[in-house]
Specification:
Chain lengths: 136, 122
């Protein structure tokens, strides 16, 4: 096949970036994309989390600086995001492991397990968030 | 069009299984991290209150340092497979993709070194 004929072929993409907002997302698709977004988010937050861990364990003095840093409302909001990302990624990761074992493979089960993931990750985020903001 | 008959009988076209290894490693590391998360949660909730002595004391034990390092090393390998997948799916420019993959490796190696430094300075 020559390059000329190849160039004349129309290119069909499934979805263009500008269409994403209007695109209907089934629950399973939402769980899938959020797994990626939470994973990338956690990857980017790694140095921050390691730094906070270092402050928390190094010495008595660094421990109080850890407490001061995490008392900052902006840091708290970032940490709430990290908590959500961790719980979301953890729960939908377990869903992935079950699907790898060929459990819950049908379209309907895929939707129901995606709903189950949100039903666990979101309330847990809420509880951890309450703890983070000092509600109990 | 019919495929030439030699393919498959004269030459086995199976690939190098790099993809399969990455896929398996991502699952195995996920299980390690999930187990470690449970260990950490149990240790955290068994402590009566969150104090420096209790927290640093937990990580001063050698078994905990090693468990933590294994969990973090698993995390970094898991993240490499995941980020590589994401880059392969969304970045179609070869040079940019290679650059971002290189930066990912450096980022994760940096995190590995930092983790070792932190864990063995407790």
């Amino acid at each position: 096949m020559s390059d000329l004929t190849r160039d004349e072929r129309p290119l069909h993409r499934n979805i263009h970036i500008t269409q994403i907002i209007r695109y209907r997302m089934p629950m399973a698709a939402l769980a899938s994309i959020l797994h990626r977004i939470s994973g990338v988010g956690l990857f980017l937050c790694l140095p921050l989390l390691l730094y906070l861990f270092k402050e928390s364990v190094l010495s008595e003095r660094s421990f109080s600086s850890f407490q001061a840093i995490t008392a900052n409302p902006i840091v708290k909001i970032v940490l709430l995001g990290v908590i959500w990302a961790y719980l979301q990624h953890f729960c939908s990761g377990i869903r992935h492991l079950f699907m790898d074992a060929l459990w819950g493979m049908s379209k309907d089960e895929g939707r129901r397990t995606a709903v189950a993931v949100f039903a666990v990750s979101l309330p847990l985020t809420f509880v951890f968030g309450l703890k983070l903001f000092g509600a109990f | 069009m019919e495929a030439p008959a030699e393919i498959g009988s004269k030459r086995l076209v199976v690939g190098a299984h790099y993809g399969l290894f990455g896929w398996m490693a991502q699952r195995a590391t996920a299980v390690i991290m999930a187990v470690y998360t449970c260990i950490l949660l149990v240790a955290f909730f068994c402590a009566s209150e969150f104090s420096y002595e209790g927290w640093a004391g937990l990580f001063s034990q050698t078994w905990m340092k090693i468990a933590t390092f294994l969990a973090l090393a698993s995390l970094f390998y898991h993240a490499w497979v995941g980020i590589r997948d994401v880059l392969m799916d969304y970045i179609h420019h070869t040079g940019l993709k290679l650059l971002l993959q290189l930066l990912t490796i450096l980022w994760l190696l940096g995190c590995t070194g930092y983790s070792l430094l932190i864990l063995w300075s407790i």
